[in-house]
Amino acid sequence: MIRSMTGYARAVADNGIYQAVVELRSVNGKHLDLFIRLPKERLDLDEVVREALRKKLRRGRVDCYVTIEPLVSSLRAARIHFQTARAYWDVLYQLHLRLPGSDPPKLEHLLKLPGIWETDTTLPEAEEVRHLVAEATEQALNNLLEARAVEGHALSRDILQSLRELQQDRVLVEERSQVIAEELQGKLHAKMQEIMAALQGTVDENRLLQELAYQLDRTAINEELVRLKSHLDQMIGWITAEEAVEGRRLDFMAQELLREVNTIGSKTSDLIVTQAVVRMKNAIGKIKEQIQNIE
């Protein structure tokens, strides 16, 4: 099973008087980078949220937005700060008296001035808010993990499709390699007979046989094909397992796939094998691109 690093989640927890809202947005990242935004009067909750995120997330850039809002209308409603309003009005009226021909101040002018409106700044108990934020964070995290799992399932389908294409081309190369080996052996044997006939037995036959074996071994790709099959089986097993696999492990194995395919391509110039190598490289490229989004 794999989990994507991309996801969004939101959760709300309330006690009937206040509510805590937690939003999580996550994208790709090499490491776990947490960016938490809290109300300025509740910065002490940073460690509560950060610790909860660290327990369940391993990689990715995660932006967390926490808001704490009152639910009771008396706490939400704005009120006029009469002392400030009175001071503003006195200044406006004195300005009107000193500016002949100016219109007298109006209420609509007063209500637009800063500091006129105020809200209840009474904060709930710290422990109460801590509990609400912790609850909302836990819910948001679970929702985020579900969203990441859904995205990961889609990634799994794409990667498995590419791995099956690789398996098909690996089988094709394996079958073709046997034909190539037989053809090369026949050509080298004929060449050896030609050399021995030209030199009329003055050349060491054992030395020629050693050279023949060396040339056959140099172009053999059996070991690469065996390792390639092993890597493919491992990756398919990791992706289809119940336990989540790390993106770093898959990325390393994709590098190994590419290394084996490159070696196969360098050992033969057969057209059919070369075409299969190009297809396998393209498939591995797609896999590596998808792996970058895996946690």
UniProtKB/TrEMBL annotation:
Keyword Translocase tagged: no
Chain ranges of the Endoribonuclease YicC-like C-terminal domain: 173-295
Signal sequence extent: none
Highest rank taxon of the organism: Bacteria
Cofactor dependency: a divalent metal cation
Name this polypeptide is given: Uncharacterized protein (TIGR00255 family)
Pfam families for the chain: YicC-like_C, YicC-like_N
Keyword Cytoplasm among UniProt keywords: no
Organism: Desulfosoma caldarium
Similarity comment text for this entry: Belongs to the YicC/YloC family.
Entry GO MF terms: hydrolase activity; RNA endonuclease activity
Keywords for the protein's UniProt record, in alphabetical order: Endonuclease, Hydrolase, Nuclease
Ranges of residues in domain Endoribonuclease YicC-like N-terminal: 2-156
